Amino acid sequence: MSEETPVTPESPEIPVAAIPVAEVPAEAVAPKSDKAEKPKAAKKSKEKKAEEAAPAAPVSFNLDDPIEPPKIVKAKGSKNILQGIAHVQATFNNTIVSITDLRGAVIGWSSAGKMGFKGSRKSTAYAAQMVAQDACRQAMGHGLKEVEVRVKGPGSGRESAVRAMQAIGLEISVIQDVTPVPHNGCRPPKQRRV
Known about the structure:
Elements: H1 26-29, H2 34-53, E1 83-90, E2 95-100, E3 106-111, H3 125-140, E4 146-152, H4 158-168, E5 171-177
Parallel strand pairs: 1-4, 4-5
Antiparallel strand pairs: 1-2, 2-3
């Protein structure tokens, strides 16, 4: 009995070597620490955010695509204005379209930032097209049919804004360029070194 395990009052009389040992994976024995789980959860949330943001990316930048017919809702307190003036301000960074009646009271306006474009996308021709459509829908809710277009500025959205107004169904009577020309007034910005 010298090779048998000593019997203590706490342990039963079964030798340790005779107890069957179940094979358990090491992961089940040692509990995972909370620190290891947090980075994985953060990675998953970043992946989910990237997946959620991805479907909004495909945007058609083709200006020749046909524009769907406008969803015109009669505005509250509409004034039944048949003729108006569309002021298109196209700068290098943004495009703003304001539509007024013949006296100058604004009946509809929109800008690239209002339409959800940010940064360098605000200066694109596609943004100008969307801006013109939005402003025209607002004005057509007041009954606008015919418009005189006044274009100001050197931006890329000049022509596309006018084309969008024609496509949405407004009759354009006159197109004027009202870009202010200085008589050598302000000093221009310095040349960019790229």
